[in-house]
Amino acid sequence: MSDFELLDPSGLPYGTESGAAGGPDPLLDGLNPAQERAVLSRGPALLIVAGAGSGKTRVLTHRIAHLIREREAWPSQILAITFTNKAAAEMRERIDGLLGEGAQGMWISTFHSACVRILRREAERFGYVSGFTIYDSADSRALLKRIIKELDADTYGFTPANSGSKISKLKNELSDASDYAATMNENDPRDRLFVEIFRMYEQELRRANAFDFDDLIGQTVHLFRAHPDVAAVYQRRFRHILVDEYQDTNHAQYSLIRELTRPIEPEQVEGLVPPARARELDASGRVPAASLTVVGDSDQSIYAFRGADIRNIVEFERDFPGAEVVKLEQNYRSTQNILSAANAVIGNNFDRQEKNLWTAEGDGPKITGFTGYSQHDEARFVAEEIEDLHRGGLAYSDIAVFYRTNSQTRALEELLIRSAIPYRVLGGTKFYERAEVKDAMSYLTSIANPYDPISWSRLLGAPKRGIGPMAEAHLANFQEAQGLSFHEAMLRVDEIPQIGPKLRGTVRALGELLTRAAKMAAGGGPTDVAPEPIPDSEQAEGDQEKRPAPVADLLKLVLDESEMIEKLRARRDPQDDARAENLEELLAVAREFDVKQPGAGLVAFLTEVSLVAAADDLDDQSGTVSLMTMHTAKGLEFKAVFITGVEEGLLPHQMSVDEVGGVNEERRLMYVGITRARERLFITLASTRATFGDVAVAMPSRFLQEIPEGLIDWRQSPGEVTGRGGTESRALNAVRGSGGSYSGRARGGASRGTDSSVSFAPGGGGGGRGSAAVSEPASGNMQSALDKWRERKRLAKEAQAAGGGFPNTIGGAIRDNGDLELAAGDRITHDEYGEGRVTGVTGVGSKRIAHVVFDSVGERKLLVKLAPIAKVD
DNA sequence: AATAGAACTATTTTT
DNA sequence: TAGTTCTATT
To answer: Which GO terms describe its molecular function (predicted)?
Structure first.
């Protein structure tokens, strides 16, 4: 069924009960004047400047619902772009709630999903096939690795990572290899080599029938520009375009919006199918431009590193003449204390428009601050406070822990596990990035796209079956020379003399498996994939209908035939059991997909998997604490929020300090973090932090000082953790003494820190004036830090060589006391807490939790499987 | 070809 | 430290 059948808004079948009929209008009721204006405004363009927590999702959904109810648009004429798939699903649900089944046929999706949808429909226009593969960053890197190797470009310092990010940046600017070649310095061999890499990369993607992430947007723009008739179809269809998080759009995304909001010129109008009706046209015979609504907050722009251009929002009024601007400043999310802190921090960004969030809700409790001696100590505080909050009646799912970098999860996870607090890490090493999951997925990808070398190459070695690099190269040469798909090349392995007789059987069997699966995936009918009929009696099991096989069946077939799970289970490494479980989990995901979207097919499944965002896994029903980076946290809110690692070098991150505008972006990140909190905000840091094997002194973040003292209640201030009071900052010194009961206990652990002769004063260098003035001392610091690091490493090596362990190492090994039986009354000993008595055991299996009263530290809950405990006889 | 151990190196955020 | 890649061995 076509999405295009509902083009004429006359005779709209629903939404007839207009708000004017008396009584409050449910779509306007409870909105403040600014929000109401944003819902009702009609014009070519509308910019909604929406401060954090100002109800923009509400405004957007109500605006869409209002358009439909007032018969100004069909659902199918609306395109709403959100930042994550989860936000899209939520928006759809809320509009459905407002209108009944009103969201049917509406496009609510991310930029990437919308573009994939368009590209799949139009791929043939420029030499792709609809079943194209979407390369994730790892796939892109794998491809680049080959190219760099082939060109010997590594000797010039090219790596898959650096060339990949450079290509990505260029693509976000809509530049291709030829554009770059036209502007580069001809005399620079590195530049010329880069162009060569870029060219080959483009070429290989095309040969593989694959797009990378950036292509999804860029190629859609390219498609629209090269084919005005195609563009006209979408320009005509989408009469109302709404874009959320507009401050984080990059040039390519901006261009896409521009293309979609162009009027259709008369010469294109002629070609429209079905023909344009008179009422669709303006006086000059054009189809007028779609109306555009964008929502954004330049203070929350945190993706400049990905090409987001803040100018898109700043210059919106110039770009779209006649635009109306509505500012939403009243906050409905957080307490005044939290907002004051947020305002104070962001106020230090001088290059912004003045804006102040306010709330009518009252001050609320103060922000809680804590400084640990190490990240371990910091994590302990977080875990204890979470337990406290939970005891106080807060659900785990109302609590989130934020950090700047994914590597900070380690210490947090360790302590949360020990405290038996259920938690979930969003993002980080995602499920689909696990090696074994990628292995299994590579079969499915290859089945859907037998021309893709990356997935094919991966599946050859998963599991190990004796096909090595040599055999792979011969096969690849053969397929290229003969112009075959990889599957066909494998079936004809007998024609490759270099491959020995033993391997031929293996290769042919694998080729047959893939061919058979591809037929099933295509519904058993003819495909562009495997024209070679296989005289194989086992074929009979495939049904002859055109129905594509369920994804789970395909996956099951692949897993069974390759014996991946069995081979993992057969190994002794306990990690391999977890890997086998991941594959079972993947099978469950596929089954779920088949139930949710019956008949959708393999390509739809692969698309969905490629485009999941970190925040999409957030499950409000899960009853777990959420751990995530502050980037992932954008758009979310929690009753209680912990912002951890608020130290110079981490937040703002060291890497950002040298970049122009880098610190300002980090400050916005801090602002985003703070404004996620509704009721309680905790800000924590550590005075020492272990960076790869080494412990370094950390200084409080400059952002801390930007928060007025009166707003933070320090349980343990940075000043108190100095050791023997070295030079302390004025600002932080001032709150000294409000430490309370924590200081005593914590000070006892001081010996664990590094030698405390180093003063723990907050970072120098203000918010950043001239970048030249800032970068010089910064690089100086980096140099000395590097020297220090080398020296420490040398000492550590010597110490290890001398047989003495390193005193500060935290035991990182994963324990498994799986078989430990405990009962009330048993006495146990714990590595850190000493001896204690078990008062009870709850939970089952690997989730068994022991309740223990320790002689020294009192009651603790421990996960039996993982806690560092042993029974005392 | 597969494995185990040694050496090396990178330390940001992500659709 | 930890993850990866290189090298030597079987």
So the answer is: 3'-5' DNA helicase activity; ATP binding; DNA binding; hydrolase activity
Q: E-assigned strands of A180-255?
A: 210-212, 240-243
DSSP string, A643-695: E---BTBBTTBHHHHTSTTHHHHHHHHHHHHHTTEEEEEEEEEESEEEETTEE
CA distance A323 to A225: 24
For residues A417 and A438, give the distance between their C-alpha atoms in angstroms, rounded to a whole number.
27
**Joined tokens for residue A832:** 């850190």
Q: What is the pLDDT of residues A340-381, one digit of tens each?
A: 999 999 999 887 888 888 898 889 999 999 998 888 889 999
CATH fold match for the domains A38-124+216-328 and A336-421+617-721: yes
A350 DSSP 8-state letter: T
A806 Cβ within 7 A of any nucleic strand C atom: yes
Stated in angstroms, how far is A398 CA from B2 C1'?
Answer: 49
In CATH, the number for domain A336-421+617-721 is: 3.40.50.300
**A629, β-bridge pairs:** A403
Torsion of CA A840, A843, A849, A850, to 10 degrees: 10
Helix (H) or strand (E) holding A412: helix A409-418
H or E element: which one contains A266?
helix A266-269
Q: What is the pLDDT of residue A530?
A: 38
Sequence-ordered strand ranges (E) for A184-254: 210-212, 240-243
A51 is in an annotated binding site: yes
CATH number for the region A38-124+216-328 comes to 3.40.50.300
Which tens digits make up the pLDDT trace of A640-668? 999 999 998 888 888 888 777 888 999 99
Nearest residue by alpha-carbon distance to C1' of B10 = A692
Q: Compute CA A44 distance to the chain's CA centroid, rounded to the nearest angstrom.
A: 33
Q: Count CA atoms within 13 Å of residue A514 on its CB side.
A: 32
What is the distance in angstroms measured between the alpha-carbon CA of A777 and the sugar C1' of B14?
30
Chain B positions with an atom below 7 A of a protein C-beta are 1-3, 10-15
The architecture that CATH gives domain A817-871 is Beta Barrel (2.40)
Residue A728 has pLDDT above 70, yes or no: no
Residue nearest to nucleotide B1 (CA to C1'): A466
Helix locations, A719-770, DSSP H:
730-734, 742-748
Average pLDDT, chain A: 78
Strand C and A834 CB separated by under 7 Å: no
- Is there a binding annotation on residue A57? yes
How far the first Cα of chain A sits from its last, in Å, is: 72
pLDDT score of A770 more than 60: no
Q: How far does the CA of A559 sit from the C1' of C5, in Å? A: 29
Active site residues of A: 56-57, 244-245, 300, 676
**pTM value?**
0.77
Query: Given a cut of 70, is residue A199 above it in pLDDT?
Result: yes
pLDDT of residue A586: 86
Question: Contact at 8 Å (CB) between A217 and A253?
Answer: yes
How big is chain A by its Cα radius of gyration, in Å? 30
- For A497, phi then psi, to 5°, come to -65, -30
A410 CB contact with strand C at below 7 Å:
yes
The answer to whether strand C lies under 7 Å from the CB of residue A693 is: yes
A306: nt with nearest C1' to CA: B14
Residue A723 has pLDDT above 60, yes or no: no
Task: Give A204-215 pLDDT, tens digit per residue.
Answer: 999 899 999 999
Alpha helix locations (H) across A698-801? 702-705, 730-734, 742-748, 771-801
| Domain ranges, ordered by start, for chain A | 38-124+216-328, 137-170+178-198, 336-421+617-721, 817-871
Nucleic strand C under 7 Å from the C-beta of A431? no
How far, in Å, CA of A864 to CA of A873, rounded?
17
